[in-house]
Design goal:
Shape: globular
Number of helices: 0
Oligomer: single chain
Number of strands: 15
Low-confidence stretches: none
Radius of gyration: 16 Å
Strand content: over 45%
Largest sheet: 8 strands, antiparallel
């Protein structure tokens, strides 16, 4: 069961937090992955001291304005990276996939739309230690160590490089996924 809470512009659902006993409210975490719904036309993002943020729109579209930094017009699969301390204003409604990291942890976030019968090989380049796959729409199968794992919409899958150097993703009927990679330093 995922933890959902309200913020001034909508709601946020925590999909993953590390360490396991981490706490978002007290900013006591290294990595947090969540879904956020922006439900009001104009909102201000919660300031998060010491947090690096990556946001990818998975439904809708928004305009983000980071005071004294940059602005971004985001539609599906567009990603914006920004510091949690930046004053961030949002116009528009959307559902966003969020990756928040602290300390030396580095992240990469991107979306993939797979057609029916598409197959993707995910390889761990040397610097990446963990990969997360989130199923936005549809179903997929992950082949790893001669096993097949079926994932449906809303599933988050985590694999560490120490367990495997690559794995395959198969889409039987088409799907959309968010891919997050993490590394130290």
């Amino acid at each position: 069961m995922h933890n959902t809470s309200k913020w001034s512009g909508g709601s946020t659902t925590e999909l993953f937090i590390s360490p396991e006993n981490g706490n978002y409210a007290s900013l006591d975490f290294e990595l947090r992955i969540s879904l956020a719904k922006v439900e009001v036309k104009k909102s201000i993002f919660t300031p998060l001291i010491g947090v690096e943020r990556k946001l990818m729109v998975i439904d809708g579209q928004i305009n983000l304005s980071h005071e004294n930094h940059h602005s971004s017009a985001l539609k599906k699969f567009d990603v914006d990276s920004f510091k949690g301390t930046w004053n961030t204003n949002c116009i528009g409604n959307s559902t966003n996939f969020n990756v928040m990291s602290k300390g030396a942890l580095k992240t990469l976030l991107y979306g993939v739309k797979m057609r029916p019968k598409d197959k993707i090989d995910i390889r761990f380049e040397e610097k990446w230690k963990t990969v997360f796959i989130y199923v936005i729409q549809g179903k997929l199968e992950i082949e790893i160590k001669q096993k097949t794992i079926a994932l449906e919409r809303g599933s988050l899958f985590q694999i560490n490089r120490s367990l495997e150097s690559f794995f395959n993703i198969n889409s039987k009927n088409g799907c959309e996924i968010a891919v997050t990679k993490t590394s130290l330093g």
